[in-house]
Amino acid sequence: MSKIAIISDSASTIPTTLRNRYHIFQVNDPIIFGDEVYKETVDVQGLGELVKMMKDKKMIASTSQPAPGDWEEALNDAKAAGYDAALIIPISSGLSGAFQTAQAVAAGYDGMADVRVWDSKFAVMGSGMQAVMAADMAEKGRSMDDIWAALTTLRETFDVRFAVNDISHLQRTGRLSRGAALVGGLLNIKPILSMDVQGEGKIGAVGKARKMSGALKEIKTALDQYLTQVDYPVRAVVVDGNNQKLGDKWLKDLQNEYPMVTFERGEIGAYIGVHTGDGAMGVLWARDWENII
């Protein structure tokens, strides 16, 4: 029986406690200031720190995908730890070239019996949740094919809504794939966005609100519609981009209104925050992965 390592990237923002609990290996994504490269969670601890760095440097950060050697190093670490197979789960191929690069590394890696790469079609705890489920199954001795099938089931149930204070960051970094006309050129609005999880895993605008309170109302409408269409337990994650107080408030509100849903808290890290900007808020949801395995 293979001992399967799960490898994620830092943009999945899996809490350290969960990564340690499930022994998930992590590749840290690069954040770039001019000629200087910083690694998320190593050199930049969160979106708040990134915002401060941009103010201090008077520069706008950009991002790049991890180098092939970063994925190979993670595989080597897993092999040294006694794993003979690995499943790499980076953020969506629609947001980064990480998936394609990891695929190329996996295809040429001969240190393990089986190395595969899963396209999460998501980011932050959307991809993170998939990695956690895979790690739980691997810990229980489930096969690679079983894990792959469970990931397929889980990914098909995902949806998300999030709001940003300023759409220009997503436009500048080329991460807004559709719906720009819906919010383009309008001032004092909160663009509401989603991800094409069942397609290419790209970001698109689906609405707008004047305030974050209005954005939450739109999010609830989307969640209501989802809940009327499913017959399985749902797990949701409230994520904030350097706005913990509002995130905690949203969590309490949603827990009170949707007692049938299991809610968790997460964050938008520095890497994804380059694209969303400061203060973004969102909620993602899917079938409760514990109900799948």
UniProtKB/TrEMBL annotation:
<dbReference type="InterPro" id="IPR003797">
    <property type="entry name" value="DegV"/>
</dbReference>
<comment type="function">
    <text>May bind long-chain fatty acids, such as palmitate, and may play a role in lipid transport or fatty acid metabolism.</text>
</comment>
<dbReference type="InterPro" id="IPR050270">
    <property type="entry name" value="DegV_domain_contain"/>
</dbReference>
<dbReference type="Pfam" id="PF02645">
    <property type="entry name" value="DegV"/>
</dbReference>
<dbReference type="GO" id="GO:0008289">
    <property type="term" value="F:lipid binding"/>
</dbReference>
<protein>
    <submittedName>
        <fullName>DegV family protein</fullName>
    </submittedName>
</protein>
<dbReference type="InterPro" id="IPR043168">
    <property type="entry name" value="DegV_C"/>
</dbReference>
<keyword id="KW-0446">Lipid-binding</keyword>
